[in-house]
Give the backbone structure.
Amino acid sequence: MLYLVAMIAGLGIGFLRGGRLRYLAQLKLRWLWLVPLALVIQLLIFPLFSGSPLLPYATEPLHLASYALLMLWLVMNVRTPPMSILSLGAICNFVVIVSNGGYMPASATALQQAGLAHIAERLLEGDVVANVTLMSALTRVNALGDWLYLPSWIPFSTALSIGDVLIAVGLVWLLVRGMVANE
């Protein structure tokens, strides 16, 4: 949801700066089809609205493959300036996920502060929820895990990582840059 909020913010800032949606086509992003393909893979392996994934097999390799597709897309578009921020965020998330067997460690405190006590409770009971595992002394690279949070009074509040913040900033920049002509 953070990325959806970032996209809405990017579009809003773009409009406020006099930008137009039609100018986004001038970005000439290559291999854009890799992004929805990676997202479809993640939707298949991590339950979004149900308790079980549609594809309950090979979660770790498929999750890493989805990140590989996103990384390939970022590399193919590296000449577009916002991609450097997006890439840094994706690399941060990739490192922590690879280091933890395909899962993102999340702080129970951050989840509770974000109003996601039910997820924190399940993690504390030893469950894995979607692509999230409980951050602990046993998880690796916790500094890149989900320990930041948006407070529960903010719509779509969630726990998030430094990588998520960088990706959100990169998305806003990409949309504003694309919408504003001659920038």
